[in-house]
Specification:
8 strands; globular; 49% helix; alpha/beta
């Protein structure tokens, strides 16, 4: 497999593009917004150069990776002859379904269609296509170039052949994979959302400051990041959408913390807006 197309050039899309291009895939990135594509290109080049400066990669790897990347607003051009298409847009089912219907029409019948989702159903998405056996969820983690895991979620009709091929791609991208049978929230999101939501409840109840809650989790339970830091990194709007979906599908224990709802209403979405549970430059 040589050509991968990525739909969506936001935080996750450009991160996946970084990892794939660095590991010798021809990567075509699509976005409806030309400015978003320019920002993605700048980001990827900057991160590659930073990695080279720290001797994680060689300077020639920067040139090779950038040469492997193509940026386009033309979806048909991007997915043509791609052997894998990874959708990386907002966690909104209607948007994902719309994109997958387009991908089903524009891509080769043999193309594997993957959604980078932390909660949404690949079964529901795949049912909107003529190839549910070739639809799978590939849940990457942010920041993609540093995080080692891809969670592979099988829909009801996802074939083992599809799973095996995607595992090979993950290995080529130097990632570890876990295989998950579809259930709302999969493995990581169910656990992560519960921990993060309880941390927000602790903060709302005045049990401890954000700094001390995160410090307790990092030093006491050996978490690499505190749950409130992580929520700010992911984006509080994204976390709220995930919580609302899990609340609808799994019940009361996933009811979003009122403080999270309040922050999102106030436009305090975390690192991307400069303000969340912490202040950022």
């Amino acid at each position: 497999m040589k050509k991968i197309a990525i739909v969506g050039s936001g935080v996750m899309g450009r991160g996946i593009a970084y990892a794939a291009s660095l590991n010798d895939y021809e990567v075509h990135i699509n976005d409806v917004n030309p400015e978003a594509l320019r920002e993605a290109k700048t980001y990827i080049e900057k991160e590659l150069n930073k990695s080279a400066e720290k001797n994680f990669i060689h300077p020639e790897d920067v040139i090779r990776s950038m040469n492997n990347l193509t940026f386009s607003t033309d979806l048909k051009d991007c997915v043509e002859e791609a052997e894998l298409v990874i959708e990386a847009v907002l966690e909104k089912m209607d948007l994902k379904v719309k994109i997958f219907k387009e991908l089903d029409d524009l891509s080769s019948p043999s193309t594997i269609l993957a959604t980078n989702t932390s909660t949404m159903s690949p079964t529901e998405i795949g049912a909107q296509t003529s190839r549910p056996d070739k639809v799978i969820a590939m849940h990457f983690f942010n920041p993609v170039h540093k995080m080692k895991l891809i969670e592979l979620i099988k829909g009801l009709d996802t074939s083992q052949e599809t799973v095996d091929k995607v595992k090979e791609i993950g290995s080529q991208m130097k990632k570890e994979t876990v295989e998950v049978n579809e259930f709302p929230g999969f493995v990581t999101s169910r656990m992560n959302c519960l921990i993060g939501n309880e941390a927000m409840n602790l903060l709302m109840e005045g049990v401890a400051s954000a700094e001390d809650i995160d410090k307790a989790m990092k030093l006491g339970l050996n978490h690499p990041m505190g749950p409130l830091e992580l929520a700010d990194l992911v984006g509080l709007d994204s976390r709220l959408r995930n919580m609302e979906y899990l609340y609808q599908t799994l019940g009361e224990k996933y009811r979003p913390c009122p403080l999270l709802i309040k922050y999102v209403k106030a436009g305090k979405l975390g690192k991307k807006t400069g303000t969340g549970f912490y202040q950022y430059e």
